Amino acid sequence: MELLQFGLFIALLVVGYFAGSAIERRHYASIRRREREYSDVLAFMVRFPFDRTTPQRAFLVHGAVVVSADYFKTFIAGLRNLFGGRFRSYETLMERARREALLRLKADARRKGAKTVICVRFETTRIATGWAPAMEVLAYGTALVPDDGSLLLPEPRAGASRLLGDGLVRTPG
Amino acid sequence: MQTKAGPMLVSNLELIPGRRIVAHYGMVQGSTVRAKHVGRDIFASLKNIVGGELKAYTELMQEARDEAVERMIAEARSVGANAVLNVRFATTSIAVGAAEILAYGSAVRLDDQ
Amino acid sequence: MRLENRQPAEGINSSSEHPLKELAWLLGGSVALVVALVFAVSLSAQWIAPRIPYRYEARLAASLPPIAAAPSSEQGRAVQGELQALADRLAARLDLPEGMQVRVGYSEEKTINAFATLGGQTVFYRGLLARLDSEDALAMVMAHEIAHLRHRHASAALGRGVAVGVILSVISAELGRSSAAGVLNQAGLATLLSFNRDQEREADNDAMAVLAQEYGHLGGAVDLFRIMAGLPGADGAVAQVELLRTHPLTRNRRQAIEEGARRLGVALDGQRRPLPPAIAALRGESG
Predict the structure, then answer these.
(1) DSSP string, B41-84
(2) What is the pLDDT of residues A151-166, one digit of tens each?
(3) How far apart are CA A146 and CA A26, in angstroms?
(4) What is the pLDDT of residue A173?
(5) What's the CA gap between C124 and B41, in Å, rounded?
(6) How far, CA to CA in Å, does A53 sit from each of A130, A169, C142?
(7) What average pLDDT does range C59-66 have in this prediction?
(8) Which tops the pLDDT comparison, B5 or B100?
(9) CATH for A138
(10) Is the pLDDT of residue C21 over 60?
(11) Chain C residues in contact with A9 (beta carbon < 8 A)
């Protein structure tokens, strides 16, 4: 029955709008709070360490997040395709995703005992999941820890990313 | 680069010969998500028959890139930098007909010449 | 060298514009665009179709297979003969285009329907005929279909359908299978169907004029819509909204009869003529 279909469509749109904006506001609040919290971990794009005299350990750290647009955003994007121009809601979404990815990268670095990350790069990929695209933002870089002589990396605390190798030498035993 | 609010040095070099970096302020980004409209799309489909440059699309992408770089410079200015180095571009397709252009780089303060 | 991470200002890469405002502009703009396009195209098709000489339509219809096959049974042929006789009598009262011959087809299927199409062809289904109780009611249906032929509605509808089909398929190609495409499709269809409804109203008015001339009263029209209102599925159970229907609501068509009676200066009621014998025989048979 077409009335039912129409009703369902309106319901999805309304839920998408309200839930979507609430989630967005909460996420932004969380992002701002954590940006203050992680302000001691510094990230740069430079390719070589600033301090070339002190020996440093270097290992890869990364942070990734997958976001998707709510029903409301997807609907607007569909209409937008007719007229062209800026997708305001998607721009906000992508900015959120990038800031979150960078925060997760800093968290990864801190967990591994680093305060500086250099050579940071971003990668964005679309993950096709049917009618609503999801975007993955990956931020990766090289974390630097001053080498204090021991050959052991400070043991990462629970939950740290083990996916990427750290390329360090460990003493046996 | 001459921008609306005064000159800003933008480069994908890491070091500018002859200038010294006084301070690093971190990363700045600028991005836009753009779509073409129906008219351009239909024209492009027709152009596919004869081939050659799709001028309308080239212009569209250029406008989008310029806007992304403008935003990156705006972020750099807001943190007090006078140059953006190490600039990189990334383009992703977001939805049917829409692409995101990201420009990001290091915001630095160079010493005065 | 100082090393810091300074947080850039907010709002450069994000937008604080209210999304509902964007929705209002986009939705309003796109629906208005689709409706305007479909309206313009339909209006042109409507204007052009009757002006193309009938012989081209006749040629097109001749190249297509006939709509209804000749009836196989003796009774079927008798019914068709009576229908054709009535059609010829009523068609004389309407100003048909040059060269148009009304050809009546009879189908023994139980569908409750009748229609007019290209090349002066009409088809009446057994299901409909079995439910009519007077010649007046039958004449209302017949005159309505002949009026469609007279105004070349079939050609206009064909032109409209093709043109609007092109527009809607361009939209589908652009927007993919998104819900936005669905919304715009519905907007286009609603506009198209309003033209269909106008055609039906025009045919109703012409049919009432013929009835008034032939029988002196509009009893047949009243009977017909009473019967239609009693059919299962008439007008739908839930919302009586015209927007996405091909025909005006039966309720509105009945109101139009009263206005028609006033306009034509005839009574709403009067002596009914009985159905021709072969058609009357269909009433008794079930199935």
Answers:
(1) HHHHHHHHHH-S--HHHHHHHHHHHHHHHHHHHHHHHHTT-SEE
(2) 555 555 555 544 444 5
(3) 37
(4) 32
(5) 47
(6) 52, 21, 101
(7) 85
(8) B100
(9) 3.30.110.70
(10) yes
(11) 179, 182-183
Domains of chain B: 2-110 (3.30.110.70)
Per DSSP bridges, beta strands B98-110 and C103-107 are unpaired
In DSSP terms, which residues pair with A118 in a beta bridge?
Answer: A142
The more confident residue out of A160 and C206 is C206
Residue B39 has pLDDT above 80, yes or no: no
Q: Does B76 touch chain C (CB under 8 A)?
A: yes
Residue A77 lies in a domain: yes
* pLDDT > 80? residue C61: yes
The domain limits of chain C are: 26-232+240-284
Q: What is the pLDDT of residue A65?
A: 96
What residues of chain B lie within 8 A of the CB of A105, using their CB? none
Give the residue from A40, A63, A58, A59 showing the smallest Cα distance to A121: A63
Distance from the Cα of C100 to chain B's closest Cα (Å) equals 42
**DSSP label at C66?**
P
Q: Tell me the per-residue pLDDT of C210-222, one tens digit each, with 9 for 90 and over.
A: 999 998 888 889 9
- Nearest Cα of chain B lies from the Cα of A38 at a distance, in angstroms, of 13
Residues above pLDDT 90, as percent of chain C = 21
Residue A163 lies in a domain: no
pLDDT value at residue A152: 53
Domain that holds residue A111: 2-146
Query: Does A164 fall in a domain?
Result: no
Length of chain C: 287
Instruction: Identify any residues that bridge with B30 across adjacent strands, giving them in sequence order.
Output: B103
Alpha helices in chain C (DSSP H): 19-48, 54-63, 74-91, 126-129, 135-150, 153-175, 179-215, 219-229, 250-264, 277-284
Chain-centroid distance, C-alpha A161: 14
How many structural domains does chain A have?
1
Express each pLDDT in A1-41 by its tens digit: 577 888 888 898 899 899 999 999 999 999 999 999 999 99
Give domain status of residue A113, yes or no.
yes
Note whether C5 contacts B25, CB cutoff 8 Å: yes
User: H-helix or E-strand containing B23?
Assistant: strand B21-35
Identify the bridge partners of residue B101 per DSSP, sorted by sequence position: B32, B91
Residue pair A69/A93 in contact by the 8 Å Cβ criterion: yes
Interface test with C, best of B21, B34, B84, B96 (most C CBs within 10 A): B96
- Contact status of B40 with chain A (Cβ, < 8 Å): yes
Chain A residues in contact with C181 by the CB 8 A cut-off are 78
